[in-house]
Design a protein that fits this description.
Distance between the termini: 14 Å
Order of helices and strands: EHEEHE
Strand order of the largest sheet: 1-2
Number of strands: 4
Structural class: alpha/beta
Strand content: 15-25%
Shape: globular
Radius of gyration: 12 Å
Oligomer: single chain
Largest sheet: 2 strands, parallel
Length: about 70
Amino acid sequence: VAVEPSDGVEQLRRNTADVADRVRIIHGPGDHLPPDIDLDCVTAIGVLQFIPQPGVVVREAYRALRPGGGS
């Protein structure tokens, strides 16, 4: 899963086109993930320092982890 709130999502789609069958792209903010999302692991690289309220995004990412998942 790749989450991208900006219009840069189109570039992300182009960059991941060769693995599109394995990458779910969510165009939206990280604090509103789909309720049915179920992740093994969450990684944020070069992101949290740009988010006005990173705690909200971190809590949402934690919610999205399946039981036994890690971050």
